[in-house]
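User: I'm new to structure prediction. If I give you an amino acid sequence, what do you actually give back? Let's try with this one:
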Amino acid sequence: MVNWCNYTVSVPGDADDLAFDASQHRLYIPGGDGFLGVYDSADPDHVTEVARIVTRKAARTGMFIPAEHTYLLAAPAVEGLPAAVLIFDTH
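Assistant: Good question. You get back a string of structure tokens that encode the predicted 3D arrangement of the chain. For your 91 residues, that looks like this:
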């Protein structure tokens, strides 16, 4: 949970990164618990979750590329899966 402008927003657990897409008013918060939270911030007084996408445990470092409308998420090798870069289209 994050206290945001005097209200609380639920975010993925073990999060240590945040990216902002100014053109779409979206926040991307990856969590080490295996989820990517996507939030609408068009009204800064009412940030709302629009998606919680399953990713991979410990994947909590990402990068937003505005020109490509792409969010990249680094996923380490865990649970028998190899390390990978997860790619999300943000359109």
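You can read the tokens as a compact description of the fold. Here is one thing that stands out. The two ends are 26 Å apart (CA to CA).
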